[in-house]
Design a protein that fits this description.
InterPro entries: FAD/NAD-bd_sf (IPR036188), Squalene_epoxidase (IPR013698), Squalene_monox (IPR040125). Catalyzes the stereospecific oxidation of squalene to (S)-2,3-epoxysqualene, and is considered to be a rate-limiting enzyme in steroid biosynthesis. It holds the Pfam family SE. By secondary structure, the chain is mostly helical. The protein has a domain of 110 residues. The protein has eleven helices and no strands. It is flat, with a radius of gyration of 22 Å. It starts with a helix and ends in an 18-residue tail after the last helix. The mean pLDDT is 89.
């Protein structure tokens, strides 16, 4: 790949970028098949400005869920702005729109978590436990019916429910451990099962934490959820 970039791509790069391009190629393990960025969406309250879509929150592109989240953000923001007739008080509107960050969580956190989990699980790894995790995920999807349709519905945004996400995660973990223990739960298989649970938790739980456990699973406990439109004269 480095040879290809130097011989075929580099000559076409702008002179101003050439040195930086070559320097990036020569850095060990710096060449990526596809550039991507993962950025959790933390509330950013700035009167007069508002971020949605990938400008605010990004997940790995492996599932192609970015546009689904962006369009969902547009619908939520539209519904929040609909009752407003006066946009002159930027501070009051900014405080009211704080509810957006909680209202978007069911859709965004479900798709974000799945995308980032898929990326971590299917990244190249020599860890046997991670390889077992890969086989578990593929085997779970091959079960078909409720199992594959449930995951597909979440990936497509048709089932934006974090509780469904948690349910499928635990069912998949049980399925994976069961596959490892069959036909007889020997000590080695028990150890492999424990390692699988550890790897699954180490992949899933940090992503859930970054998305916000309270906002995902207990949105009604977040005060911003109950923000009401500011009163203003009609224009």
């Amino acid at each position: 790949m480095a040879h290809y970039l130097k011989t075929l791509a580099a000559p076409k790069v702008l002179p101003e970028l050439y040195d930086s391009f070559i320097s990036a190629i020569e850095k060990k393990d710096n060449i990526r098949i596809m550039p991507n960025k993962i950025m959790a969406g933390a509330p950013h309250l700035t009167p007069g400005a508002f971020l949605i879509g990938d400008a605010f929150n990004m997940r790995h592109a492996i599932t192609g869920g970015g546009m689904t989240v962006a369009l969902s953000d547009v619908v939520i923001l539209r519904d929040l702005l609909r009752p407003l007739h006066d946009l002159s008080d930027a501070s009051a509107i900014c405080k009211y729109l704080e509810s957006f960050y909680t209202l978007r969580k069911p859709m965004s956190s479900t798709i974000n978590t799945l995308a980032n989990v898929f990326h971590k699980v299917f990244s190249a790894s020599s860890d046997p436990a991670m390889e077992n995790m890969q086989q578990t995920l593929l085997g779970y999807l091959k079960l078909g019916g409720f199992f594959s349709s449930g995951v597909s519905a979440m990936l497509s945004g048709l089932c934006p429910r974090p509780l469904s996400l948690a349910f499928h995660f635990f069912v998949m973990a049980i399925y994976g451990v069961g596959q490892l223990l069959l036909p007889f739960p020997s000590p080695k298989r028990l150890l492999d099962g424990a390692k699988l649970l550890w790897v699954a938790s180490s992949v899933f739980l940090p992503i859930i934490h970054s998305e916000g456990v309270r906002q995902m699973f207990f949105p009604l406990s977040v005060p911003a959820y109950y923000r009401t439109p500011p009163k203003g004269k009609k224009i």
